[in-house]
Design goal:
The chain is built from 10 helices and no strands. With about 270 residues, it is mainly α.
C-alpha cells in the first residue's frame, strides 16, 4: 500500500469536511422537526417519513466520505461506514414508529396506520424503499465480506423487509396488482416484487445465521416467521402453489428447530 502523504490527508480532510457540514445541517433539520413534533402531533406520520428519507440521505453522505477515503487514501473509512450503519437504523426506526416492527401483524391491524399516510402515493413509498435498500447494500459492500458486522446485517435487512412490507396497503395493492388499467399498477407490481424478495431473503438469512453462527432458536424462529409472512402474501395474491411450497418449507424448518431443541435438552 502506497504511503499516505500529508497532501493526501489534507485533500481527504477537505472533502470529508464538506460532507460533514451537510450532515450537520441535516441532523439540525431533524432536531428542529422533532421539536415541532413534540408540540404538534398533526401529520406526525408524514413528518416521520420525511425524517426517514433525510436519514437515508445522511447515510449516503457518510458513504461518500468512505468513497473519498478509498479514492484519496486508498483505505476504507470504518468510522464513516459505521456512522452510516447507525443512521440507517435510525431511518428504519422512524418507519417502524409509523407501521410497527412486527412481521406477523395482520393487514387489518395496519388499517389505521395506512389511513394515517394515505396521501403518500405507492410510487413514493416504493422509491423510499429503493433508496433505503440501496443505502443498506452500499454499507454492506463498503464493509466487505469479512466484516465483524456480517451477521448483524441480517437484522438490519430483516427490519428493512418488515417496514417495506408494512408500508404498503395490501388491500388496495392486491386490487391494483391485477388491474393493468390502474394508475398505480406498475409501482404496485414492482413494490410487491421487492417486498417478496426482501422477505424471502431475510428468511434465508436468518436460517443461515442460525446454522452457521448463532444456533439461537430465535434466529430460526425469525426465519420461520418471515416464511409465514411470505406465505400470507402468496395467499393474498392467489398464488396457491407458492403458498403451499412455502408452507412445506416452514414445516421443515420448524421440525429442524424442534429437533435441535430436543437434542439440546438431552445433552
Amino acid at each position: 500500500m502506497a504511503k499516505i502523504t500529508e497532501e493526501d490527508r489534507e485533500q481527504f480532510a477537505l472533502e470529508a469536511d464538506h460532507y460533514k457540514k451537510t450532515i450537520d445541517e441535516s441532523l439540525e433539520k431533524e432536531k428542529n422537526m422533532l421539536t415541532v413534533m413534540k408540540s404538534d402531533s398533526v401529520g406526525v406520520e408524514y413528518k416521520k417519513l420525511i425524517l426517514a428519507e433525510e436519514m437515508i440521505y445522511v447515510a449516503t453522505l457518510y458513504i461518500q466520505i468512505n468513497g473519498s477515503s478509498l479514492k484519496i487514501l486508498h483505505v476504507k473509512n470504518n468510522d464513516a461506514l459505521n456512522d452510516a450503519r447507525k443512521i440507517l437504523y435510525k431511518a428504519i426506526i422512524y418507519l417502524e414508529e409509523i407501521v410497527t416492527n412486527s412481521i406477523n401483524i395482520a393487514y387489518s391491524e395496519l388499517a389505521d396506520k395506512m389511513e394515517a399516510i394515505q396521501n403518500t402515493p405507492v410510487q413514493k413509498r416504493y422509491q423510499l424503499m429503493q433508496k433505503l435498500g440501496l443505502a443498506i447494500q452500499m454499507v454492506i459492500d463498503g464493509f466487505g465480506d469479512n466484516s465483524k458486522w456480517k451477521w448483524s446485517f441480517v437484522e438490519l435487512q430483516g427490519r428493512f423487509a418488515v417496514v417495506a412490507k408494512n408500508l404498503i396497503d395490501m388491500k388496495t395493492a392486491v386490487k391494483d396488482y391485477f388491474d393493468p388499467n390502474s394508475p398505480n399498477y406498475d409501482a404496485t407490481v414492482l413494490y410487491i416484487r421487492l417486498v417478496r424478495k426482501l422477505i424471502d431473503d431475510s428468511a434465508t438469512a436468518y436460517r443461515d445465521r442460525y446454522e452457521l453462527s448463532t444456533r439461537r432458536i430465535d434466529d430460526i424462529n425469525a426465519g420461520i416467521n418471515f416464511l409465514l409472512a411470505s406465505r400470507r402474501i402468496a395467499v393474498a395474491l392467489g398464488s396457491s402453489d407458492d403458498a403451499e411450497e412455502i408452507k412445506k418449507k416452514a414445516v421443515t424448518w420448524k421440525k429442524l428447530m424442534e429437533a435441535d431443541q430436543k437434542a439440546g435438552k438431552s445433552n
